[in-house]
Amino acid sequence: MRAFLLTALCFGLSTLSAADVEVAVDGVDAVKGTLLVGFFDNADDFQIPGKEVEGSPEIEVTEAGRIVCTMKDLKPGVYAVAVIWDLNNNGILDTGAFKRPKEAYGFSLNPKVNFNAPKFEDCTFAVTEAGGKLQVTLLK
Questions:
Q1: What parts of the chain have a pLDDT lower than 50?
Q2: Dist CA 104 CA 128 (whole Å)
Q3: How far, in Å, CA of 85 to CA of 81, rounded?
């Protein structure tokens, strides 16, 4: 049923104009690296480097604290955001033993993360013509 509703929502939003979505990222406690703010529009591509929606922001960290960026001209639809604080600027989330992340990361809607990354459906939100704002808290 949820898939039907999401499909209907996307179809209904397809005639709307593009919008801006502001993302506030909390948990940046040092001036180092880059925030990779990936917007994804489908479950198959979610969290795959290089599969983000074109124009997904990359923000050089020039100060500690809340970092705010804006995704411009996003087509209305259903999206999920994955954020990586790429400390060494290599473009990926570095992991260690048992694939445990070495760099901070977060997701739209701040789902609870245990041993596995959340699913696309756990992080989705609708973008409308009015745009919107999101808050993501980095996990370390």
A1: 1-14
A2: 29
A3: 13
